[in-house]
Amino acid sequence: MKHWFSDGAFRTIIRNSAYLGSGNVVSALLGLLALSCAGKGMSSEMFGVLVVIQSYTKAVSDFIKFQTWQFVVQFGTPALVSKNFQRFRDVISFSFGLDIASGAIAMLGGMLLLPLLSKALGLDADSFKLALLYCTLIPSMTSSTPTGILRTLDRFDLIAIQQSVKPLLIAMGSVVAYFLHLGFTGFIVTWFISNLFGGVLFWWFSVRELRRKDFQGALRPSLFSSARRIEGAWNFVWTTNLSHSIWAARNSCSTVLVGIILGPASAGLFKIAMTFFDATGTPAKLLEKSFYPEIMRLDPSSRRPWLLGLRSAVLAGGIGILVALLVVIVGKPLISLVFGYKYLESYDLIKIMLGAIVVSMMGFPQESLLLMAGKQRIYLVMQALASGSYILLLVTLSHILGVEGAAYAYFGGQSLDVLLSLIPTLWAYRHRNLLSHHSPKGLVNEQ
C-alpha cells in the first residue's frame, strides 16, 4: 500500500475522492433525515407514493439522458492535455446541445406517459397533478454537462459543494413539512424546489469556471457542426446512452416496478433498502468519479491505467467489506430510530443485498477502463445481458417471494453486471498494445 501511494495518479484519485466524500457523507446523512421526516410525517402508503413519483421522474431522465459528462471527460480531457482548446470548446458545445434536446424530449415523454401509468403507480387526482409538476424537473436531471466540465477542469471541490447544498435544502424542507404537518403536498413541493435549485447551482459553477479559464463561447449549443469536427462523437454518445438506458432499466426503474407489482407500500420499503445500498456504495462512486478523468490522461497501451484500476478495485473492495459489517451491526437500530418500527422490514432486504455491495464496489473500474480502451460497444452488450437477466429475476421473484424477492433479484443483477463486464476488461488488458491508435486519446494525439 505504501508503494501504491507513491504513484501520483493514485494519490490524485484518492484526493479527489476525498473532496467528493466530504460532500457525499453530508449528502447521505441529510438524505436519511429527509426520508425519515417523510416516512414519519405520512402514512406508509403516501410515503410510497412520494417515493414512486421521485423514482418515476428519475427513471425517465435516466432512461433518455445521454451520458454527456462521460463524453466531456473522454474527449475534453485529452484536448486539454494537448492544448487543443478549440476542440475542447466543440466538445462542450456538442454536449450542451445534446442535453437541451434530450431534456426536452424526456420531459414531454414523461408527462405523456404518466396518465397511462397513474393507476398502476397508485396516484389519485391530487398526487397526479403534483407528479406532473415534478416532471418539469426532468431536463435538469438529464443534463450532465456541468459535472463533466467540473471533472475535466479538476474542480471536484465544487461538485462536493453542490452535492451538499441540494440535500441540505431537501432536508430543511422536509423538517419544515414534518413539524408543520404539511403532509404529502408539503414534502413534494419542498423536494421540487430543492432539486431545481441544485440543478441551477451546478450550471452556475460550470459557467463561472469556463469564464475563469477563458473558454468564452463554449456553452453555445451546437449539435451537428461540432460533431463533424469530433471524430467518433455520435458513436460514443449513442453507445453510452443505450448502455445507461439499460442501466436505468436495472436500477432507477426497480422501485417503480416494485410499486407496480407489489404496491406503493412495498415500493417504500424497497426504497429505504436501496437508500442504504446507495449510501454504502458511495466510496466506489467517489473513486469512479475521480478515476475516470485521471486514466484518460494516461496511455491505454501501458500497464499503468490497468494497474491503477486493480489497486482502486482492491481498495474499494476492502472498504466494501468494512461497510457491510458496519451495516449488519447498526442497520436495524438505525432504521428503527430514523424511520420507525413500521419500516423495520426493510432491514431484511438490506441483509440480502449486502453481498452486492462488495461485488459492485470491486467492479467499479471496469466501465471506465473499457471506455478508455474504446470498447463501449462490448460494454453495452454485457450491460444488456446483465440487465435483461435482472428484470426477469425481479418480476419473477417479486411475484413468488414478494418484496424480499426483489432484494434477491437486485443482488443477482449486480453480481451478473460485474462478472460479465470482467470478461471484456480482461480481454482489453491482454490486447492493450493495440489500443493507443484506436482510443479517442490516440486519435487526439495523432491530430
Automatic annotation (TrEMBL):
<dbReference type="Pfam" id="PF01943">
    <property type="entry name" value="Polysacc_synt"/>
</dbReference>
<feature type="transmembrane region" description="Helical">
    <location>
        <begin position="407"/>
        <end position="429"/>
    </location>
</feature>
<keyword id="KW-0472">Membrane</keyword>
<feature type="transmembrane region" description="Helical">
    <location>
        <begin position="20"/>
        <end position="38"/>
    </location>
</feature>
<feature type="transmembrane region" description="Helical">
    <location>
        <begin position="378"/>
        <end position="401"/>
    </location>
</feature>
<keyword id="KW-1003">Cell membrane</keyword>
<feature type="transmembrane region" description="Helical">
    <location>
        <begin position="130"/>
        <end position="153"/>
    </location>
</feature>
<keyword id="KW-1133">Transmembrane helix</keyword>
<dbReference type="GO" id="GO:0005886">
    <property type="term" value="C:plasma membrane"/>
</dbReference>
<protein>
    <submittedName>
        <fullName>Lipopolysaccharide biosynthesis protein</fullName>
    </submittedName>
</protein>
<feature type="transmembrane region" description="Helical">
    <location>
        <begin position="306"/>
        <end position="329"/>
    </location>
</feature>
<dbReference type="InterPro" id="IPR050833">
    <property type="entry name" value="Poly_Biosynth_Transport"/>
</dbReference>
<feature type="transmembrane region" description="Helical">
    <location>
        <begin position="91"/>
        <end position="118"/>
    </location>
</feature>
<dbReference type="InterPro" id="IPR002797">
    <property type="entry name" value="Polysacc_synth"/>
</dbReference>
<feature type="transmembrane region" description="Helical">
    <location>
        <begin position="349"/>
        <end position="366"/>
    </location>
</feature>
<keyword id="KW-0812">Transmembrane</keyword>
<feature type="transmembrane region" description="Helical">
    <location>
        <begin position="188"/>
        <end position="205"/>
    </location>
</feature>
